[in-house]
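Propose amino acids for all 510 sites.
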């Protein structure tokens, strides 16, 4: 990895504290940071380097996946950091920043490669990118990169405008748009799993698959983000980005190796092949939901409209379920059902692939047979399960289900941010959202935004702590399917029912 300077805008903010410092620290422990490395944290607060470092150390103690107990390692890590006061609107602050960066590059012997990480609100992205260009910070003999967080626009037009602005200062190859779902280890393994398992390759198409279900359910409500969330909703907050990215990663038939160009191409193909959703069809293919009061893990919780900062007449969506179809030779005719929501029964991100059911064609005596399922548990736990039918013990003719697979609990899984920051530092954009994908995602979603805005789609209430509105179940029932694992709190619990313990070994595929 090249020596470089990591210039962090928003260094005193929440994301930096919770995610970025812990991720850098874990990369450091794994020997995945360059030896010649410098981080310059930027913020408006008049902090000294010492105050900054003390804050970073505190964040490691609170949020690092691995304990920051080795004082020597922590000190060595903190040695990378310096703080610089910067008001993002003030031109002269960028000049002094340039001086600071250049000085550190010289004294520490760090090559002039610069990664600008914008851990700030999206309303500041354009200003900062323009100042980076104007001040000369971006005119370096080494490389420069821009890392930004979502949201990338609010609709198709604003995303296009925004991209045009950023493109004045950075090329597409230099822009790394974070979608933290792409950093989740299981999402990153989808590619490898397809490539290394002929059995998956052979069955990864409409000949064997009946439907695909992608769920990201959360138990949390709107939390302290009313101001943002009430203008965003599940559609903008989760669906347009995280959920469609999961779809692309799953359906993309991704190539071998680290060829980010190829990955971009395959993902783009999925989005281009998605059957467009017409505005008049939104009400039948999309379910819009909002949580009412209910209970989460036995505790009563209020409904969305009674959350602090949410207007009583809010029509905002906290849940969405949609049916999508990909028009290509692999997937033609296979429904993809995608849903995401807040205040649902469990916290789980999971993909279930339901295979066609040959058992139905066997004799009626085959009680208990059920479709084969391939399940990817993405987070908070990680696992892959295959559900097969086998002979039951009691009566020879009966079938029983066995689940084979492997499972890892949430705590020993590397954080998405570790993977993504590592890739950005290496310049590998395979697991970032490329402009084509972002644009095509907004394009697909735009009729839903329009239909919601015109209130053409019913808003279904669902009790907090449920699996979402009844209408989301009907969406599948119309096609003769149902959401898997809604009756049980976790897919993994089915293993116990089937009497076959899961292997507790960590996945050995990496
Ligand atoms: C964020 C959304 O992008 O993802 C949040 O803004 C959501 O509303 C979060 O809670 C979910 O992420 P994860 O990794 O917990 O599934």
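Proposal:
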């Amino acid at each position: 990895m090249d020596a470089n300077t990591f210039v962090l805008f928003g260094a005193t903010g929440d994301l930096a504290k919770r995610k970025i410092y812990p991720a850098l620290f874990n990369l450091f422990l794994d020997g995945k940071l360059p030896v010649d490395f410098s981080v310059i944290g930027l913020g408006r607060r008049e902090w000294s380097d010492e105050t900054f470092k003390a804050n970073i150390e505190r964040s490691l103690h609170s949020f690092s996946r691995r304990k920051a107990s080795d004082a020597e390692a922590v000190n060595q890590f903190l040695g990378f950091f310096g703080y610089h006061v910067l008001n993002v609107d003030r031109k002269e602050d960028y000049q002094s920043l340039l001086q600071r960066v250049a000085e550190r590059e010289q004294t520490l012997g760090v090559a002039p490669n610069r990664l600008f990480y914008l851990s700030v609100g999206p309303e500041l992205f354009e200003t900062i990118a323009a100042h980076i260009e104007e001040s000369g910070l971006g005119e370096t003999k080494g490389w420069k990169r821009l890392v930004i967080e979502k949201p990338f626009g609010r609709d198709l037009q604003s995303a296009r405008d925004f991209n045009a602005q950023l493109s004045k200062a950075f090329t597409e190859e230099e822009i790394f748009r974070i979608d933290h779902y792409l950093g989740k280890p299981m999402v990153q393994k989808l590619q490898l799993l397809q490539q290394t398992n002929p059995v998956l390759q052979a069955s990864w198409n409409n000949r064997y698959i009946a439907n695909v279900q992608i769920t990201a359910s959360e138990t949390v409500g709107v939390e302290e983000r009313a101001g943002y969330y009430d203008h965003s909703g599940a559609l903008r907050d989760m669906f347009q980005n995280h959920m469609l990215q999961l779809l692309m990663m799953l359906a993309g038939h991704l190539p071998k190796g680290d060829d980010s160009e190829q990955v971009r191409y395959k993902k783009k193909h999925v989005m281009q092949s998605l059957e467009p959703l017409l505005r008049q069809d939104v009400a039948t293919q999309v379910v819009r939901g909002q949580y009412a009061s209910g209970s989460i893990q036995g505790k009563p919780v209020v409904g969305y409209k009674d959350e602090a900062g949410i207007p009583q007449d809010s029509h905002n969506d906290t849940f969405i379920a949609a049916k999508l179809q990909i028009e290509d030779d692999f997937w033609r005719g296979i429904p993809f059902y995608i849903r995401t929501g807040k205040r649902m029964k469990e916290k789980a991100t999971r993909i279930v692939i339901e295979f066609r059911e040959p058992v139905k064609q066997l004799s009626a005596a085959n009680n208990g047979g059920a479709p084969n399922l391939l399940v990817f548990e993405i987070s908070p736990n990680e696992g892959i399960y295959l559900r097969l039918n086998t002979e039951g013990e009691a009566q020879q003719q009966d079938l029983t289900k066995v689940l084979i697979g492997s499972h890892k609990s949430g705590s020993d899984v590397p954080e998405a941010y570790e993977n993504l920051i590592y890739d950005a530092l290496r310049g590998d954009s395979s697991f970032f959202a490329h402009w084509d994908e972002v644009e095509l995602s907004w394009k697909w979603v735009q009729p839903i935004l329009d239909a919601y805005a015109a209130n053409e789609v019913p808003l279904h209430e669902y009790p907090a702590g449920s699996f979402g509105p009844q209408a989301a179940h009907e969406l599948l029932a119309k096609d003769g399917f149902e959401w898997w694992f809604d009756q049980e709190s976790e897919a993994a619990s089915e293993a116990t029912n089937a009497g076959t313990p899961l292997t507790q070994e960590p996945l050995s595929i990496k």
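The radius of gyration is 24 Å. The longest helix spans residues 233-251.
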